Amino acid sequence: MKKTNYTNLQLWSLVILRVAIGWHFLYEGITKLLNPNWSSLGYLMDSKGIFEGLFLSIAGNATMLNIMDFLNVWGLILIGAGLIVGLFTRVATISGIILLAFYYLSHPAMIGVTYAIPSEGSYLWVNKNLIEMLTLWVIVLFPTWHEVGIDRYLCNKKQ
């Protein structure tokens, strides 16, 4: 097992941060799963920025939209669960960064860009998706799953 030199306060602060972000992902995924009317269609149709064409083409293709909806819901659930229990945590964390990057690229926080979907505030470059993405990057750089989480036991078996 890889042992870190974190103090107890540092270790548990990082674990709490990991679990809190995991809860956010898991809850978002479950609410989408339980809502039979949920679709990413409106979000994709409201896309702006350099990848607007890609997101609009996904929204315009029913098969691609269904695939994206499935991947989004189950990605959120699996990433969240992995972060909470510390299972395949590195994969969950990097997957979370990628998913949030797509959210950010779909709805970048830029001057003069307005969206039909209401936002929680006024942003310039930095929004909640970017902050959460950067926080996941910190979790990758300061791993806790070797000490707190199911990965601890998986790592022990490999050595």
Topology:
Blueprint: H1 8-34, H2 41-45, H3 52-59, H4 62-85, H5 89-106, H6 128-141, H7 151-158
Helix pairs in contact: 1-4, 1-6, 4-5, 5-6
Description:
By secondary structure, the chain is mainly alpha-helical. The chain has one domain (8-158). It is built from 7 helices and no strands. It has helices spanning 8-34, 41-45, 52-59, 62-85, 89-106, 128-141, 151-158.
Summary, kept brief:
With 159 residues, the chain is an all-alpha fold. The chain is built from seven helices and no strands.
Short descriptors:
single chain, 65% helix, globular, 159 residues, mainly alpha
Q: Helical element count?
A: 7
Structural class: mainly alpha
User: How many independent structural domains?
Assistant: 1
Helix content: 55-70%
What does the average pLDDT come to?
88
Q: Helix-strand pattern, N to C? A: HHHHHHH
Low-confidence stretches: none
What's the story with the biggest beta sheet?
A: none
Separation, N- and C-terminal Cα atoms: 7 Å
| Rg from Cα | 17 Å
- Please count the beta strands (DSSP E, at least 2 residues each): 0
- Give the CA-based shape: globular
Residues in β-strands, percent: under 5%
